[in-house]
Specification:
Layout (H helix, E strand, L loop, with lengths): L1 E5 L3 E5 L6 H8 L5 E3 H9 L8 H17 L4 E4 L5 H13 L4 E6 L3 H10 L7 H12 L2 H7 L3 E5 L2 H6 L1 E5 L2
Parallel strand pairs: 1-7, 2-4, 2-5, 3-4, 5-6
Helix pairs in contact: 2-3, 3-4, 5-6
The chain binds guanosine-5'-diphosphate (GDP) and magnesium ion.
Length: 171
């Protein structure tokens, strides 16, 4: 699959923890194009896992996103984004700047998500958190168009994630 992105898009990665979002972002985008909730937590708390820093982290992420989209810079939002209310905040910012929103859904099977989470060296979440994120993610794709995403790219297994290419069009 070749994911086609407008030159000035907001690209929302969507999927449970451990589905390879940050790995994918690092492979296909400039470091400065990626806004990650973990990096924002680290920025305010020196710890990417400090959940108490979540509100501040997302406030920073939203602010940086708005400044980038105002300049027409393609921006990737690397967070789980499995909750509709979290996506709504991002979509409002894209709409305000007249920028297309694109979703890339890391729709991996639950057993793969649980395995990857358990094998992680940086942070292992309780498996019930992964199950919850997976259930939310699995019901998202049909609603994403209605929410305001212009295109939705679904990666349905680990092979599709590693084989996916990214192309940009327009200026
Ligand atoms: P995120 O939580 O969605 O950002 O996922 P990460 O990109 O941090 O990856 C979570 C874990 O899965 C890490 O330990 C990665 O090394 C591993 N991982 C990422 N992509 C792949 C992949 O394509 N195959 C395998 N086997 N592991 C991967
Ligand atoms: Mg990550």
């Amino acid at each position: 699959m070749t994911i086609q992105l407008p030159a000035a898009a907001m690209v929302v990665l969507l999927g449970p923890s451990g589905t390879g979002k940050s790995t994918f972002a690092a492979r296909h985008f400039l470091p400065t194009e990626v806004l990650s909730s973990d990096a924002m937590r680290a920025m305010v708390a020196d710890d990417p896992n400090d959940q108490d820093a979540t509100d501040a982290a997302f406030e920073l992420l939203h602010t940086a996103l708005g400044f980038r989209l105002a300049r027409g810079r393609l921006t990737v939002v690397d967070a789980t984004n499995v909750e509709a209310w979290a996506r709504a905040g991002l979509l409002a910012i894209a709409r305000r700047h007249g920028v297309a929103a694109v979703a890339v859904v890391f729709d991996l099977p639950l057993d793969v998500c649980l395995e990857r989470n358990a094998a992680r060296s940086d942070r292992v979440l309780p498996s019930r958190a992964i199950r919850r994120q997976h259930a939310l993610m699995a019901t998202s794709p049909p609603a994403l168009g209605k929410e305001g995403f212009e295109s939705v790219w679904r990666l349905a297994d680990a092979g599709s994630v590693s084989a996916a290419a990214v192309e940009r069009f327009g200026r």
